[in-house]
Amino acid sequence: xxxxxxxxxxxxxxxxxxxxKDVNDGKVTSSSSSHPIGTVIxxxxxxxxxxxxxxxxxxxxxxxxxPLGAAIGAVIGGGIGAGVGHEIAAEINxxxxxxxxxxxxxxxxxxxxxSDYDDYRPAYRYxxxxxxxxxxxxxxxxxxxxxTDWYSSRGDSELDWEDAKHATRDAYERVRNQYS
Length: 180
Known about the structure:
Layout: H1 2-16, H2 36-61, H3 65-91, H4 94-104, H5 117-133, H6 139-153, H7 161-179
């Protein structure tokens, strides 16, 4: 736990000193195909919300309007949800984040001696992806689940969660601070 606090405090202090070069100048696109995961997540969430709202409204009007109201609500909610999901995903440029961490990882206090960027790259990507999935949560709330999922998400990285979580937190907090 002390190491976790050290990493968070060291990160906060380092960022405040403005020692990190920011290279996130990627372009935001408007095509829904450029951010399919965010668009799909938003669509499904919007459809669920639309169906729920329509069922309540349909029940208030009468049982005959319920199914029709649910169908209309699903279509409208899905469209709105897709737009919202796409907007969240569109703001984060994974290539720019990868370039940022490639150029800055050596300055991080948690990097193990003899490590190179490819050792930490999956952890940084995991942090960015985790923010895209769970933008409204604090990292500390997500950490127990992230630790469990790390071993199926890490690809070729040989880092254990105890070593990867600092880079994951770093990337999660970076995009959270930029996009929230």
